[in-house]
Amino acid sequence: MDYRNAFFWYQYDPTKWFIAFCGKVGLASHLRVFPSNEIAKSQLAMKLKELKRTQDSLKWPTPNEELPVVSWDTFQEEAQSRPLILVAGYIHDVSRFIDQHPGGRHHLENNSGKEMTASFYGGIYRHSRAAHNLLAMMRVGILDCGVETPKIPVAITRRLNISEQDI
Fold it and tell me: How far apart are CA 155 and CA 162, in angstroms?
C-alpha cells in the first residue's frame, strides 16, 4: 500500500529514495502513499501496547471490592498484634513502612489502632501526593461504616429506652 518503508523524509530508506527518484524522472508511476492519519493511529496503538505492558508490570493498590469490611472491634484486636492505622475509612498495615516513616516510627507505633484521618490530611502534617499513593498500597481493609463505632453507656440506652441491638 506504500512504496516507502520509512515514512519520514529523514529516515534512512534508500529504496524509497530510489523509487521516488524514478518517479521524478518518469521511470515509475502511480506511487502509493498510505494516509498519514492511519500511520499515526498505528503508531499510537503500538505506544498504547507498550504502556499497557508497563502498567501490567506495576503493583497497584488492592481494589476496594477485594478488601474485607472489618468492624471497629476487629480493627482494635488486630491493631494489638501489628501496626494498623485508620485513614479515611481504610485500614492500613504500616508495618513494612514503620522504619522509613519520615516522622519516626513512634508516630505510627503510638497511633496504631487509631483514627488518623485528620492528622494525615493536615492536622499534624499535610502529606504529599506521593505519601497518599504510598499509603494506598498499604490498605488491608475497610472499616464498617467508615468511622469508629462509639460505645453508648448502658445508663444512656436505658434512659433513651433503646437496646444495644437497635444501635
Answer: 10
Q: Which three cell numbers stand for residue 82?
A: 501489628
Find, among 78, 115, 105, 74, the residue nearest to 93 by Cα: 78
The one-letter code for the residue type at 128 is S
Angle at 153 between CA 151 and CA 155, to 5 degrees: 160
Q: Per-residue pLDDT tens for 36-89?
A: 898 899 999 999 999 999 999 999 899 989 999 989 899 999 999 999 999 989
Q: What does the alpha-carbon distance between residue 137 and residue 141 come to, in Å, rounded to a whole number?
A: 11
Predicted TM-score (pTM) of the model is 0.62
Place of cell 523524509: 9
CA angle 13/16/21 to nearest 5° reads: 130
Report the alpha-carbon angle 155-161-167, nearest 5: 85
Closest of 85, 74, 6, 39 to residue 18, by C-alpha: 6
**Radius of gyration over alpha carbons of the chain, in Å?**
31
Q: What is the dihedral of CA 91, 77, 72, 98, to 10 degrees?
A: -20
